[in-house]
Structure formats: structure tokens, C-alpha cells
Amino acid sequence: MTDTKITDLGDGGAVQPGDEFVVARSGSNNKISGSHVASSALLTVVKYAPSSLATYNVTSATLTALDTTNLTASFTVPDSGKVLVTFSACMAAPASNNLGFSLLNHSGGAQLGDTLSNVQSIDANARRMTIEWLLTGLTPGATLGIDIAAGRATTGTANVYAQTQTGNVTSGGVGPALIIVQAA
């Protein structure tokens, strides 16, 4: 086998648990297992930041996908069969309201994981909130699509917002909605 410069190597794709790496440190070589590296690998990131304000009105207790085009993520399930899903966005719930979130399978709409109540009677002012789900028992190697779903517990309307925001802070700016999926 001939020597090849690191800069001349091709992209090997995503790190797999069976991969092995050599790390040169202070004159000694150390081996790192791909299982260790892949255990927290970033699988996908979705950033939704439209130029005009996107407002998702949540008016029912029934968990409903907010947006099956823009607030959806697709990824390949890692060998562990576990993923950590993080959703971050600006949200508002009027007095005496409770805004809950869940994940729905993009194909068929079945609920994945728990329903998490996040915004409870904060007021009509939007606040950035972050929600996390740990999904386990998934089929390794399968492609899975997820949708962010929401419902509210009482009467009235709760909202989730997304919009691009750059430069100076402005009144009413909400920033993007983010979905981050990591191997767990």
C-alpha cells in the first residue's frame, strides 16, 4: 500500500461504529473506535427561517403536525437505535393555556415518543423554548422522517413562530425554528 496524504483522501461518508481512527498525540498513536465517535454524531439539522413571519396557530388539543414541509426532518437511524431530537422555536401561550409537543412519523402520522408540555400560561409574548425527545427502539439503518406536532390543552390559541433575523435585535424578531437530530 502506498502512502497517501490526508488531503488526497476521498470522503468516507458518515462515521460507522465499526470504523477505527488513529490519533497522533505527543509522539504516541492512539486508536479510537468508530462506536465512540458515532455515539453522538449529528444526523441532521433543519433550520426554517422564512423572510416573512411564519405563524403556526395551535387551536386544538389534538396533536397535529405544524408544517410537514418545513418543520420536518429525515435521517438514517444509527446502530444504537436511539436518537436525541431537539426542537427550538419562539412560542406563545395566552393565560390559562398549555402548549404541548410531540413527534409524529412523517409517513403515516403515528406518534413517536412522549408528549411534552412546554409552554404553560406564559402570556402572549413569544419566548424561545427548547424541547428534547429521546427516541429508543428504532430500527438501525432505517430512514425515518419526523414532523413536529403541537396541541393545546384549553381554549384559545397558542402559537409557534419562525422567521429569519440578522443584524441588530429588533422588536418582534423571533429567529429561526431548529430541529437537530443526534445519535444517542
Task: Based on the model shown, name its key terms.
single chain, 184 residues, mainly beta, Jelly Rolls, 2 domains, 6-stranded antiparallel β-sheet, 5-stranded antiparallel β-sheet, 13 strands, 3% helix, 52% strand, elongated
Structure report:
The protein is an all-beta fold and 184 residues long. The chain folds into two domains: 12-36, no CATH class; 39-183, Sandwich (Jelly Rolls), CATH 2.60.120.760. It is built from one helix and 13 strands, in the order ββαβββββββββββ. It has one helix spanning 34-38; strands spanning 20-25, 28-33, 42-48, 54-58, 64-65, 72-76, 83-93, 98-105, 111-120, 123-135, 143-152, 158-162, 177-183. Strands 3, 4, 7, 10, 12 and 13 form a six-stranded antiparallel beta sheet that branches. Strands 5, 6, 8, 9 and 11 form a five-stranded antiparallel beta sheet that branches. The protein has a two-stranded antiparallel ribbon with strand order 1-2. β1 and β2 (28-33) form a beta hairpin. The protein is elongated. 24% of the residues are buried. The mean pLDDT is 83.
- Ranges with pLDDT <50 over ≥5 residues? none
Number of strands: 13
| Shape annotation | elongated
Structural class: mainly beta
Please indicate the percent range of residues in DSSP E strands (runs of 2 or more).
over 45%
How do you describe this structure in short?
The chain has 184 residues and is mainly β.
